[in-house]
Amino acid sequence: MAAAVAFRQLQDYLNTQVLGQPSLVEHLLIAILADGHLLVEGPPGLAKTRAVQALAKGIEGNFHRIQFTPDLLPADLTGTDIYRPETGEFVFQQGPLFHNLVLADEINRAPAKVQSALLEAMAERQITVGRSTYPLPALYTVMATQNPIEQEGTYPLPEAQLDRFLLHLSLGYPDAATEQEILTLTRSERLEGESSMDNPVSQASILSARKDLLRLHMDPAVEAYLVALIMATRHPADYDEELAHWISIGASPRATIALDRCARAKAWLMSRDYVTPGDVSALLHNVLRHRLILSYEAEADGIQKDQVIDRILQCVPAP
Question: What is the CA angle 11-17-22, rounded to 5?
């Protein structure tokens, strides 16, 4: 109960700091609750970095932002062994990945070796340097941003790394009314300074909330619906001829697990003790967007992944 109140206060605080992006705020909280990583894609200036910084102010734990660049080295993320001449020993100096909340800004600008180091941290919750392996904190989340406009000096993320992200959120521009509210907020911050949350959510509350998610009731019919949505990506011909033409490779079991955890987190944030089919369908786009591989024919026809997911929702009946 205390955890639920704390998260409602956190959500209210984030909505005052990040205007016009309620979906981003909700999915930041879902990622924290579901113990997963979030990839946020959108043009510059849509408060992607600001949202993660605001989240860091609202939870107990340490935060670090890493600006990904083509000349970044794995040791810049993981840390390295440093020689101490006074003792004649090597001492490990932790890198920024050892923080509770890590913002990987413009993640697609780093080369393959850096992505490999980040992948181990995301997947195994540990870091290996030389012959030693170091565990990461129990509360550990990577929030990555990606700019879809610029392609110069970028490296496409490998499918294995994309699959490690719990959610892939795509952002759009705010409307005119929200734009005016943003102007008012930025002027206020320049005059009075940025506000902060009085009582940040404790790590104990977050870990407690994660256990609460597992206790939520999910009807067998809703669970079957969830599985059917994933099966439609692997055996599209069983559901629709056009889907079979569009999808080359479907989602892995990790997508099923992610959809279950995220649907539970959404239900919990709405103060319900049960999961509805609407919770599942509402999160399908962000769970599958980075996990589907479309056929050459679909790409040649200009078919977008969101169109494919819309078609899946149409072909799989909800209970």
Answer: 55
Q: What are the beta bridge partners of residue 127? A: 134
Q: Report how far residue 175's alpha carbon sits from residue 161's, in angstroms, rounded to the nearest whole number.
A: 33
CATH 3.30.565.10 fits 216-315, yes or no: no
Strands 101-105 and 141-146: parallel
Residue 180 half-sphere exposure toward CB, CA atoms < 13 A: 2
Total Cβ atoms within 10 A of residue 273: 10
Find the radius of gyration of the CA atoms of the chain. Answer: 21
Domain 2-192 is found in CATH 3.40.50.300: yes
**Model confidence over 2-21: pLDDT tens digits?**
777 888 888 888 888 888 88
Tell me 110's DSSP state. S
Tell me the H-state helices in the chain: 2-17, 22-33, 48-58, 75-78, 112-124, 159-164, 176-192, 203-215, 220-234, 241-246, 253-269, 277-288, 296-300, 305-315
Report yes or no on whether pTM surpasses 0.90: no
